[in-house]
């Protein structure tokens, strides 16, 4: 169940980042409300996952998945460019997340 909680937390982390961008420095009401709400939900689910997972593994995967989702959706929604160095860096993050998942029980 911890991995499901962590995945839910990562989804809300992505929503937080995207809504923070849409809030324009917290000057727009509804994106700001979404940003604060998704932050609370994300941290809540992260805390549930950390009841079982090591904090180093859980937090790193949470931020990694949040980063990957934010970059991917940022490119789609906000037309941000994904350059070759960015793509290589994303692949490194994915490799790290997979490696942490595989060694989480070790």
TrEMBL record:
It is found in: Cell membrane. The keyword Acyltransferase does not apply. Its main location: membrane. The chain crosses the membrane at residues 27-47, 59-78, 84-104. It is a multi-pass membrane protein. GO terms for cellular component: plasma membrane. Keywords: Cell membrane, Membrane, Transmembrane, Transmembrane helix, Transport. Gene3D superfamilies: 1.10.3730.20. One of its GO terms (molecular function) is transmembrane transporter activity. Belongs to the drug/metabolite transporter (DMT) superfamily. Small multidrug resistance (SMR) (TC 2.A.7.1) family. This is Multidrug efflux SMR transporter. It comes from Streptomyces buecherae.
């Amino acid at each position: 169940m911890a991995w499901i909680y962590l995945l839910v937390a990562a989804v809300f982390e992505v929503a937080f980042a995207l809504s923070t961008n849409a809030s324009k420095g917290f000057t727009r009401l509804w994106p700001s409300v979404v940003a604060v709400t998704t932050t609370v939900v994300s941290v809540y689910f992260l805390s549930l996952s950390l009841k079982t997972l090591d904090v180093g593994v859980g937090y790193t995967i949470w931020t990694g998945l949040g980063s990957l989702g934010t970059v991917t959706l940022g490119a789609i929604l906000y037309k941000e460019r994904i350059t070759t160095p960015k793509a290589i860096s994303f692949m490194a993050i994915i490799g790290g997340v997979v490696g942490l998942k595989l060694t989480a029980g070790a």
